[in-house]
């Protein structure tokens, strides 16, 4: 009988001469999506409930800031294997530009300007944490910085800074970690060229820089070319490599060139006209490292002037051209195909032959290469009667056809948060199992910001 009595007493407790039934389980934690499903507040040694849930309450797969590509929603935000991180506040007195970046071991080096308009380099990892202190070019005396370029070379990185008003461009070699190897050096130009776009040759031994005037100051009619080797020694230029072909005081701007061989490039320019209706022209020209044409110019006329880029070369060496609201590809026989994109915001099914769909403003796009085909990143501002909301997305194209990496648009800002135009700064394979898109934006109130949006995908 004594044994039976012990069993009874183990299932209840004595209190004030009576019996007390077991307490209910602790309440559920605030986060319940993903790996946090079913998690509960912890119970302290004195039997009371903890005031907040801790990472240990959420379990071993929980991460406050998701960073794993493991098929799980580790930060419990309802999104599996994708996350966004604020990288840095942008201090430029002119909004969220000038700005560019490239990848370095462990994260990014970001070229931008501080509140005084002085150029500097900032170093951030994929979680937005500082890798090393900023490097500021305190001896800068060329006034308004209009743009930067960072081109990866066989030796490291070449940094170029373009001034809006000064007839010179400024450069410095960076090591593979993005640290300057010497002070900025000036290369005289025949005229001020505030926009610079740079691309390395196929082996990184040379870099082609394309420089154009700033349309806010004048109406450029010429594009300058300049080639350097990986150490920064000038090979050729600066020299005019393309003249405006159509009349009208409109945009004539160089795009980022691509390298097709150790000493060969394809340059491109986007040219507007002021005719009505006003066509725009995407012009591409192959160049040697001595800035001499190596083939005929290719031109595509369109009525869109929102943006364009050159896709990385195909295995056949062809360099396709891409327009922001139209997909432009070239076959091996150089036949041009243009595919219109509907003005509808909707998920793109895997079988679709459309890369990009959006309403309202299609702000910017950027393209990167992968062994499974190019990736297209985009940022768009969707207008409603109440507010503007900020959307981002990624499309991918592989050998087996096109697919949508992210079936639905995401929102970096909460719905109803007013913002100015966002810009997709770039897309990079910052880690082998994920893609990261850098997007900058300016809130209606407050400083500009640079964010990183990461998707797990090969």
Radius of gyration in whole Å, from Cα? 27 Å
- Measured between the Cα atoms of the first and last residue, the distance is 67 Å
| Named CATH topology of one domain | Neuraminidase
Find the structural class using helix and strand composition. mainly beta
Strand content: 35-45%
Strand count, sense and barrel status of the largest sheet are:
5 strands, antiparallel
Low-pLDDT stretches are: 1-16, 325-363, 380-386, 396-417
Describe the protein.
- The chain has 458 residues and is an all-beta fold.
- The chain has two helices and 32 strands.
- The strands form nine sheets. Strands 16, 17, 18, 19 and 20 form a five-stranded antiparallel sheet that branches. Strands 25, 26, 27, 28 and 29 form a five-stranded antiparallel sheet that branches. The protein has a four-stranded antiparallel sheet with strand order 3-32-31-30, with no helix packed on it.
Q: Which properties best describe this structure?
A:
Neuraminidase; 3% helix; disordered N terminus; 458 residues; 2 helices; single chain; five-stranded antiparallel β-sheet; mainly beta
